[in-house]
Amino acid sequence: MRHPSSLKQEFLKKWIMGLQRCGFSSKKSMSVMERKKAIKLSADLAMASTRNGTTCWSRALIANASRNHENKILAEQILGPESQSLKKASSTMPPVICSRRIRSKKILKRSCSSHVRRVRKFALSQKVLSANSVAKRLVRKRTNILKSLVPGGEYMDDISLIEETLDYIAYLRAQVDVMRCVASATEVVDRNSD
Amino acid sequence: MENDFFLNPALHFEPPSASIMPTWRSLSAAMEIQIQGTEQSQDCFFSPNTDQSVHFDSALSSMVSSPAASTNNVSNDSFVIRELIGKLGNIGNNSANNSCYSTPLNSPPKQLTLPMTDHLVKENLPSLGKSMPLNSSVAEFSADPGFAERAARFSRFGSRSFNGRTGQLGLNNAEFQKKPNILMANGNQNLPRVSSSPSLKANGSQMGAQENKNSSPLQDSQEESTISEQNPNGDSNSRKRKAASRGKKEPPSSSPSANATKVGEANDNSKAKRSKPNEDNGNENGPVKAEDETQKSSADKTNAKPPEPPKDYIHVRARRGQATDSHSLAERVRREKISERMKLLQDLVPGCNKVTGKALMLDEIINYVQSLQRQVEFLSMKLASVNTKMDASMDSLFSKDIFQSNNNLPHPIFPLDSSASAFYGQQPQQNPALHSNISNGTVTQCSVDPIDTLLCQSLSMQLLPLNGFSESVAQFPNFGEDDLQTIVQMGLGPNPSRETALQPQSFHGSNQAPHMKVEQ
Questions:
Q1: What is the pLDDT of residues B341-355, one digit of tens each?
Q2: How is B370-415 classified by DSSP, letter by letter?
Q3: ipTM for the complex shown
Q4: Which of residues 145-184 of A touch B (CB under 8 A)?
Q5: Packing angle between helix B282-299 and helix B200-215, nearest 10 degrees?
């Protein structure tokens, strides 16, 4: 149960900690892209860790970050030692479990839909493009797009997908707000320094 | 150079957020009544505001006036509210379950007299008795802290009447917590419980709402002849209610009469119980039924029968030509859940309330998520670009300094209040964060303005390890002498050329020059 401003506070805290941990103050000068990646990654992980693995997208985010080899070390650095439990939670591979479930669902669907298709063809042979089916197709397409957008979305069914989207939108908003404030603060600092 | 490039786009980003906020607020004002159902259990964490009832009333009146204008029937509160309930649908379902499963609300109850919440919540409770799977899944959903976070987000976007609603529901919580048990046991028994509520009229409308809710999920299975053959185990309560209602509603038609008598006998008690509280609701039943039908006709393809004259009972429109097996029922449940969630999403995504239909709303949601993600990318790139200078030693020194300097900062800050607070007024939320983060509990009792400047300076200081803009810190003379010296020394390290010009000012600690710079 989080008030949005407390959410932002927590996010900012963890973000700065993560940035510090990933060696931002180190001597080596990173390129802009590297820096950007580090910033984004630490922000993502900070937000995901605030959820403490309660939401699927946060787990998927951490899992993706850890899986990616180039990010892995950075991610582990950022997450730090106290996040071992978090990493464990995300690495229990809900995707694997979910994909199994998805596969079985698909098989079931296929077996059902073949029968339904036969029946439907028989009944609605004239109305090939019934409004209902068109609408369903559209919705299906968009759901797939949304699944690709939300991290870990491919493994969720429709209902939980929408819940996760809600959460994810809230997180993105908080992240954008915080980053914008930080950016404007640096702007001011920049302007004053010129 | 690149900073300039980034400055301009940043300006573009500012207005959207500014414009989005009012949109959200107006959205939320319109959607308050929808939201309120979902927010009931999570609102205990917000302190009640006095203007909420005003907002809530205004929103409610605006929503109420439109349906009232469209009907020529007697416009009593309960009728209009029932229409609203019907229109809003199952939105409060989750909230009702939340209120049942979560702890009672902590906020003190407010004296809002709207029966709206009453209806909304009570109408959702019958749905609990419908199907156990629905209960369990909704229970999971209610237990999801992310949902509470979402709820918190909703409130942030200006729907300020949450607390008012919370207050109202605080009164009703005790009732609600008893309800699910009763409902799950036997839906029929729920009715006498309802009739014991304070106002009979409210009872009637609640009954109407309840009946609507009871029957609405079941209207897909309405071949009359199949009623008696249906599975008595799973949805016996709902079936009985449905059959009883249909039996009552169609005495003129001959075909269901046999069924009606057959099933009606089985449901005699329920009918009797129902008819008792409903005797004074004859007029309301008709419009309720009509409203229910109009509500369902969009969902149903086959809603053939015209409205019947009102009886002393809430009529439920039966659906014809729909399968009655468990698959389609589960389908319906799933569909309703999805529509509920979509309604929640409507509140989060700006501009989504005008859109109806899943595909369009999904479109909006996708666009919004994509735009947010792009914003994050852009902002992270921007932040990365300002990090042109790095200082290795700064990090540790700064973290130490920040802890020290915070104690000194409040005092010299006051002169800077007026100018800086305007600048940093946009970052009120971060201030407590930084303060708590930095000072680790040594939070001083400053007013808001000093905190703004204090924390934004601290923010800048914290950014300095990342940015390497040590010279900018030197501009702020509000640090203690020792801190300032250390900062300047550090700044001297990597950037001697830029530091020297600013040092005299910083050392003198005069506020004037930096004042003016900040005021730019």
A1: 888 878 778 877 777
A2: HHHHHHHHHHHHHHHHH-----TTHHHHHHHHHHHHHHHTHHHHGG
A3: 0.78
A4: 145-146, 149-150, 158-159, 162-170, 172-173, 175-184
A5: 30
